[in-house]
Amino acid sequence: MPPSSNIRQLLDSIQKIAKVHNTEVTAKKIDKILKEGFGNLHVICDFDGTITKYYKNKDKKERSPSSHVILSLSSRLTSEFKEKTQALCDKYYPIEVDNSLTLEQKIPYMVEWWEQAHELIINQNIKKDDFAAIVSETPMNIREGLKELIDKCKEKNVPFLIFSAGLRNVIEEALTKENLYHKENMHIVSNKMDFNPETGICDKFVAPLIHVFNKSEITIKDSPYHQTIEDRRNVILLGDSVGDLQMSRGIEHDICLNIGFLNYIDDDLLNSYLKIFDIVVLDDGPMDVVNMILQTIEH
């Protein structure tokens, strides 16, 4: 059955601002989401490069700070920490984005990177009360349209899962500072720093370790959040890397509309993204696609 005029009109609007991989498959997914409404929907969203913009200054190719970088830029942390953290990034980031390597080949390097980065953090004697000041020093660069998306999900009681290989403590504080963290319908799965009850200092991270390519292995089935989504069969997934597609694999669902953010120009990567994401937003673009879908549900 061909898509309805409403679906065609919505797809036409989406294709003016983004790339659509397979219009027939995408139309079917959107049709089911629209017909079943907010009550059967939940959203899964990456943080770094998705909730936040990729570029702080696009003309200068200046990257927005990730949750790890927000921490490392703090005046409370030593210069030695910053040098060693940057050295890890210089060593391992090229491996993360190397299209000639398979995920299986990359994963051991990502584990090495995250474990070493976390050990450096633990050695800094960070206290829980430090995060408000840390985040204030280096505010996050929010993607345009994010507030509209989060506010609409809160209004319609749509569960919103943030799934990140970053630092939960930084993410939670950054969202709280922007009045974007709503415990009623939001849940964060990310690397969480744990604090010694006697000293108040971070002395470990809560297992499991989450890196960019193991999100499918992390389960939320034992969390209270899972009860809010177990009967919701439609998912909208938002991410900026191939690894983000794994975020929905541990969650039972009927359909998952995958929206990818390709934040910089790379024709080879665009072809790869179009094969795996239903919709690809280019050039560090705003949250307009998902907001258009939610607006259409409402109206």
From TrEMBL:
<dbReference type="Pfam" id="PF05822">
    <property type="entry name" value="UMPH-1"/>
</dbReference>
<dbReference type="GO" id="GO:0000166">
    <property type="term" value="F:nucleotide binding"/>
</dbReference>
<keyword id="KW-0460">Magnesium</keyword>
<dbReference type="InterPro" id="IPR036412">
    <property type="entry name" value="HAD-like_sf"/>
</dbReference>
<dbReference type="GO" id="GO:0005737">
    <property type="term" value="C:cytoplasm"/>
</dbReference>
<keyword id="KW-0378">Hydrolase</keyword>
<protein>
    <recommendedName>
        <fullName>5'-nucleotidase</fullName>
        <ecNumber>3.1.3.5</ecNumber>
    </recommendedName>
</protein>
<dbReference type="GO" id="GO:0008253">
    <property type="term" value="F:5'-nucleotidase activity"/>
</dbReference>
<dbReference type="InterPro" id="IPR023214">
    <property type="entry name" value="HAD_sf"/>
</dbReference>
<dbReference type="GO" id="GO:0009117">
    <property type="term" value="P:nucleotide metabolic process"/>
</dbReference>
<keyword id="KW-0479">Metal-binding</keyword>
<keyword id="KW-0547">Nucleotide-binding</keyword>
<keyword id="KW-0546">Nucleotide metabolism</keyword>
<dbReference type="InterPro" id="IPR006434">
    <property type="entry name" value="Pyrimidine_nucleotidase_eu"/>
</dbReference>
<comment type="similarity">
    <text>Belongs to the pyrimidine 5'-nucleotidase family.</text>
</comment>
<dbReference type="GO" id="GO:0000287">
    <property type="term" value="F:magnesium ion binding"/>
</dbReference>
